[in-house]
Amino acid sequence: MLNNNEVEEILISEEEIKEKIKILGKKITEDYQGKDLVFVGVLRGAVIFMADLARSISIPMIFDFIAISSYGAATESSGVVRILKDLDETIEGKDVLVVEDIIDTGLTLDYLLRILKSRKPASIKVCTFLNKKARRRVKIKIDYFGFDIPNKFVVGYGLDYEGKFRNTPYVFTLNPKIFKNELK
Ligand code: IMP
Ligand code: MG
């Protein structure tokens, strides 16, 4: 699918992702029986993961989306976050599951959770596709996660570099030449 020059190393294959989604979906289905489940997807990175995860869940649920922007440089998080698009529905009294692509420093999610908790949901939990523990700067309770990953910049399956590579169905590291613009 991709020009092989762009891939340095595949870290998580399509098959591994599919297997993990089944396991997570089963667990979430069990845990949310009888609850008023709302997926809050963080745009844009979480979209691919959220769409697959939702289809492995077999209880009634709804989706909503929030878009935030961090003021940091392309590959660094600053922790200063701005809401670009708010949720469409109220979450008061609902059982919210925040769905993220990756938790790196944790600064983005920490800020987002504070905003969402102030809206009085019945419960709020976190499900992230990837967990990059090495760079964590704030303590975050992660209730569900797909994979722990090393301290590397990864793309694919929703994660981007300059907006690209989100549509790749596996997770990989980029050929360093991409960052230097030598392959463009
Ligand atoms: P945090 O605030 O440092 O936890 O960063 C969270 C956001 O940074 C994620 O939602 C991603 O948009 C971005 N990010 C962090 N690490 C990576 C990565 O390895 N690849 C792509 N985006 C990343
Ligand atoms: Mg993101």
What is the topology?
Elements: E1 7-12, H1 14-31, E2 37-43, H2 47-54, E3 62-70, E4 81-85, E5 95-103, H3 107-117, E6 123-131, E7 144-148, E8 154-155, E9 171-174, H4 176-179
Parallel strand pairs: 2-3, 2-5, 5-6, 6-7
Antiparallel strand pairs: 1-9, 3-4, 8-9
Helix pairs in contact: 1-2
Bound molecules: inosinic acid (IMP) and magnesium ion (MG).
Please, could you describe this protein's structure?
- By secondary structure, the protein is an alpha/beta fold.
- Helix 3 (107-117) links the parallel strand 5 and strand 6 (123-131).
- 29% of the residues are buried.
- It is globular.
- The two termini are 17 Å apart.
- Helix 1 crosses helix 2.
- It is 22% helix and 30% strand.
- It has helices spanning 14-31, 47-54, 107-117, 176-179, and strands at residues 7-12, 37-43, 62-70, 81-85, 95-103, 123-131, 144-148, 154-155, 171-174.
- It contains 4 helices and 9 strands, in the order βαβαβββαββββα.
- It has a 6-stranded mixed beta sheet with strand order 4-3-2-5-6-7, sandwiched between helices. Strands 1-9-8 form a 3-stranded antiparallel beta sheet.
- The chain binds inosinic acid (IMP) and magnesium ion.
- The site of magnesium ion has 3 residues, from loops.
